[in-house]
From TrEMBL:
<dbReference type="GO" id="GO:0016020">
    <property type="term" value="C:membrane"/>
</dbReference>
<keyword id="KW-0472">Membrane</keyword>
<feature type="transmembrane region" description="Helical">
    <location>
        <begin position="20"/>
        <end position="43"/>
    </location>
</feature>
<keyword id="KW-1133">Transmembrane helix</keyword>
<dbReference type="InterPro" id="IPR029020">
    <property type="entry name" value="Ammonium/urea_transptr"/>
</dbReference>
<keyword id="KW-0812">Transmembrane</keyword>
<protein>
    <submittedName>
        <fullName>Ammonium transporter</fullName>
    </submittedName>
</protein>
Length: 85
């Protein structure tokens, strides 16, 4: 029924209205979206959302997981070993 369930009775509370659902959506935005963006903004200003420049150059997957997920003999055509920059 979702958003257009206006007028249907609720089992234990007041009737469902479109205005009530809209208000609930606005409350969820207010307590979820805005604080999340505030935390992201603070982390950005602290430069805590970036990885170090040397890790950017070699790739975060190589830096965090230096091993290969596949054995040497199972690599396909065109495979080349990537050199660290």
């Amino acid at each position: 029924m979702g958003t257009f369930a206006s007028g249907f009775p609720n089992v234990v509370g007041p009737n469902i209205t479109f205005l009530g659902q809209l208000l609930g959506a606005l409350v969820m935005v207010a307590i979820g979206f805005f604080p999340g963006n505030a935390v992201a903004y603070v982390l950005k200003k602290m430069n805590a959302l970036r990885i170090p420049e040397e890790v950017e150059k070699i790739g975060i997957d190589v830096a965090k997981f230096p091993g290969s997920p596949y054995p040497e003999e199972h690599r396909g055509q065109g495979y080349s070993v990537r050199k660290n920059l």
